Amino acid sequence: MDVTAMRADRTAEELAAVDRRLIIHPYLPRSTEERVVMVEGDGCRLRDAEGREYLDATGGLWLAQIGHGRREIAEAAARQMERLEYFTSFWEFSNERAIELAERLVEISPPRQTHVFFTSGGSEGNEAALKLSRYAHWRRGDRDRTWVLARNQAYHGVGYGSGTATGFPVYHDGFGPMLPHVRHLTQPWPYRTELFDGQDPTDFCIAELERAIDELGAENVAAFIGEPVMGVAGMIVPPDDYWRRVEEVLRANGITFIFDEVVTAYGRIGHWFAAEHFGVEPDIIVTAKGITSGYTPLGAVLVSDDIADVVTEEGFPMGFTYNGHPTACAVALANLDVIEGEGLLERARDTGGYILERLGELTELPVVGEVRGVGMMHAVELVGDRNSRDPLAMDAAPQDVIRRETGVIVRDCQHNLVLSPPLVMSRDEADEVVDAMRSVLERTSVSGEIAPGS
Predict the structure, then answer these.
(1) Which residues of the chain have pLDDT under 70?
(2) Domains of the chain, first to last
């Protein structure tokens, strides 16, 4: 019998059994028996090996901008593979698609971003950004500028440098010692008023930033790295004045401003880049995820002239095997065409605003403390007490109950249920998502118990 046919004939349980035996899944305890084996996607819909259908309200890992199953993306990849599937972009070598994509990215980027360093994803991108900053200072003779300022509950990936900048203990415990000279500051989370000692959140965060620079010495600080909207922390949208004031402090002290737009770039919040939304001009913008909508791995670090000129003078001593991968770049170009051609930036603002309005209806429920969002990034913060704002301690995971009962896939982050749907989501699908969340949350008590469904 043909091996391919044998594999195609395997049942969902047979596939799950092989998965349990062979695959190490990120964050999945060994005792977890359940597997959901996806086999097909179309738009915002998915189907698993058992034939069950799902509505994807997470965009996979927050990246399926144009939705699943786009034939034009597959065709773009096939055309490029037939012509040139891969060759290195190290040294003097390049390829047409990488050059075209670099041109396109510089064209749509904020004015300071004039150069592109390709990677395979976000963790690699943040590793590169930290090295670009430190190396640029070193090349200029500022060899004591090694400190990196990040924030508590930030997520910048799980590499060595990027993982150290990530501000959750779970990503450090057992992996240390971590990268030296990284300090974490308070996250700008307005709902968590206890973080700010009764002060305005931006005033508190800026004073803390200035104090950290004074303590370390500005001449010793290389970079500040931050997500425009803190995703894994629970879609934390900072106050309107936060990023502009951070930028002012960094500029005054000669500190590299790194914007981690791995999640927010390419339309997620209704603009090509969140830097436009927040009115700032970073030195480095790190991107990945939505650059290809997940159809193939790719990342791009967008860099200013003053950094690019100094790090390339004798050659930037860092690279990845798949830098400027021609097939990935062809996919990215086709993906950007879809985003632009179908008006998905505007659609993200429109549909995102509608989702935020619908989610606002959930604030009548006792366990919902706050609803927040921007573009197609939303969070419903779950609390056990709306007065004290204590996080809800759950006996069961509401996102799992929502998926099993309704087929709607949402994600939990820091006692929040978060949404990051494909930008192509319709209003009817948005209603389906919110209705599914309500159907479970209205049965959830402040003690964390979920009553059985009808």
Answers:
(1) 1-8
(2) 36-66+344-441 (3.90.1150.10), 72-341 (3.40.640.10)
